[in-house]
Structures are given as structure tokens and as C-alpha cells.
Amino acid sequence: MNSSNSDKIVTLDVRAGLAAGVDPFQEIMAAKQKLADDETLQVINTFEPIPLINKFKTMGYESWTERPEPGVIHTFFKKVQADVQVEEVSENLAPNEQDFQKQLESFCNKTQPLDVRHLEMPEPMVEILKALESLPENYALFVEHKKMPQFLFPELKDRNYSIVANEIDSNHIQLLIYKSTSS
Q: What's the topology of domain 8-79?
């Protein structure tokens, strides 16, 4: 998708806020509220904002990305449907230590560790998806996380991954992510 010449682009660069540890979600939603029907919102970022793309999709927007230079991603959001409320995919994964241990044992030593507890949102999701791209076949990604990554679930489902969780304490969750077997 590309914007046509008749579209007006409203640009929002969120890189400085992210670098300062500020979540740009509210700023982006405020910009969306001000958009006219013939305007397209352009968000300039350092990563592809998959949770944001999914959120906008539920509100009747199409999106596309451009990468004008390494480390810079422009994501465009254009309203295509009038006030459609698509039901959001919301999967709540209940941590289950027994299922987690059983699944972990099934992978023997075929796990790749990834600790994202020190990262600020949305970097954990970005790092997890990046790690999954290079995960060897028949391996599982063993993730140390500080919270349950709700926005990650629909993305994993779309990519045919399964996930089990084990809650260590309120600030430490272990996740085991692996390719779903086709039945």
C-alpha cells in the first residue's frame, strides 16, 4: 500500500520519547483522534510497532511500513472503514507450572535462552520476535520476562507458535515459545 497524492500525511516522530523511556501510545492515539478522513498518520519509529498495527486494524485502519534507512521505520495508518469495531483477539494465558515443566522437559536441551527483563516496552516483544526468526527447527525459545506480554499472543498465534508460561513472582515470568505442530 502507498498513500495517494490526494492524501495528507500527518507525521509523528516518536523516537525521542522512546529513547527517553516514554511510551508513545497515548500521543499516537491523540494524533489519531485529530485525523481528518483524508489524512494518513505516519509514525516514525525505530522498530515495526506490531501491537499498534493490530490495534489500528481493529479500528478500521489499513497500515503499511517503509524503511527509508537502517533503523528507521515509517508506519502509515489510513482509515478505510467508518467506525468499525472488530472484536479484538484477547487471549489470557494462565501460567501453569506443571504444563510449563512438562513442555520444557520435552525439548530436552533444545532451548535458546533470552532474558528481556531489563528491556523497556516494546523492546521485549521486538527481541522475542527477532529471536524466533533465527530459532533452529525443533527448538523452543526460553524467555525470562518481567510481565505477561499480552500483545505478543496474537502475533505468535498468527505465526503458528505456541506458548506456555511459568510465574516465578509478580515481576518474573518464564515463557517457553515453540512452533505449533500441525495436527
A: Translation Initiation Factor IF3 (3.30.110)
**Measured in Å, how far apart are the chain's first and last C-alpha atoms?**
35
Rounded distance between C-alpha atoms, residue 71 and residue 48, angstroms? 10
Q: Residues 169, 132, 93, 162: what is their CA dihedral angle, to the nearest 10 degrees?
A: -130
Q: Residues 57, 6, 14, CA angle at the centre, nearest 5°?
A: 50
Q: Is the model's pTM score more than 0.85?
A: no
CATH 3.30.110.40 assigned to 97-179: yes
Secondary element (H or E) of residue 25: helix 25-33
The per-residue pLDDT for range 64-105, each reduced to its tens digit, is 999 999 889 999 999 887 654 444 444 456 667 788 899 999
Work out the number of other CB atoms within 10 angstroms of the CB of residue 40.
21
Tell me if domain 8-79 and domain 97-179 are identical in fold.
yes
Domain boundaries, the chain: 8-79, 97-179
* Residue from 42, 38, 39, 94 nearest 65 by CA: 42
The string of DSSP codes covering 28-65 is HHHHHHT--TTEEEEEEESS--HHHHHHHHHTTEEEEE
| β-strand pairing of 8-13 with 39-45 | parallel
Q: Answer for the pair 18, 46: CB distance below 8 angstroms, yes or no.
A: yes
> Over 50: is that where the pLDDT of 1 sits?
no
